[in-house]
Write a structure and sequence with these properties.
Layout (H helix, E strand, L loop, with lengths): L1 E9 L8 H9 L2 E9 L5 E9 L1 H13 L3 E4 L2 E5 L9 H5 L5 E3 L5 E3 L9 H5 L5 E5 L7
Antiparallel strand pairs: 1-3, 1-4, 2-3, 5-8, 6-7
Helix pairs in contact: 1-2
Bound molecules: iron/sulfur cluster (SF4) (2 copies).
Length: 141
């Protein structure tokens, strides 16, 4: 069973939306709430673990994001090693969320806020320029 720990940040207008209940039914997954809090500006912050078949968990994350919730993976962090990257674009076509994209000058950009750590880019990169670290390996985040 695939498991993904994420930090969900709900804008004020979505705090009362039962999104987790919806995705558990829609995508046949289960969730475990790690922590929950309301920030000073009344936004909701929820740390959860989602479990289920990998495509279902990823689809659920995508669904929640499309509803306007900001999501960050707590399990893995993806970065692009600019010293190794040749801007070949092989990762861009694989990225399901638009986290990897072309800049105006056709160099490859990376938006960590959109990344769901699916690692398709790592598999596609011929230069090993995609670095995936697990949360307990990352000390600066
Ligand atoms: S890990 Fe997945 S979502 Fe993140 S940049 Fe790579 S392909 Fe895109
Ligand atoms: S596939 Fe690798 S080398 Fe090519 S643009 Fe993506 S990160 Fe850079």
């Amino acid at each position: 069973m695939f498991s993904e720990r994420i930090l969900m940040q709900f804008p004020r207008e979505l705090v009362n939306e039962p999104l987790l209940s919806i995705v558990t039914k829609e995508f046949d997954i289960v969730f475990n709430i790690i922590s929950a809090r309301i920030t000073e500006n009344e936004e909701g912050q929820l740390k959860v673990e989602l479990r289920g078949k990998r495509p279902n968990v990823l689809a659920a994350v995508d669904y929640i994001k499309k509803k306007g919730v900001s999501i960050r993976s707590l399990s893995k962090f993806v970065t692009v090693d600019r010293k190794l990257c040749t801007d070949c674009g092989a990762c861009v076509v694989q990225c399901p969320t638009g986290a990897l994209y072309y800049e105006e000058d056709l160099s490859v950009g990376f938006d960590a806020a959109k990344c769901i750590a699916c690692e398709l880019c790592r598999l596609a990169c011929p230069y090993s320029a995609i670095v995936v670290a697990h949360a307990d390996e990352v000390t600066h985040v």
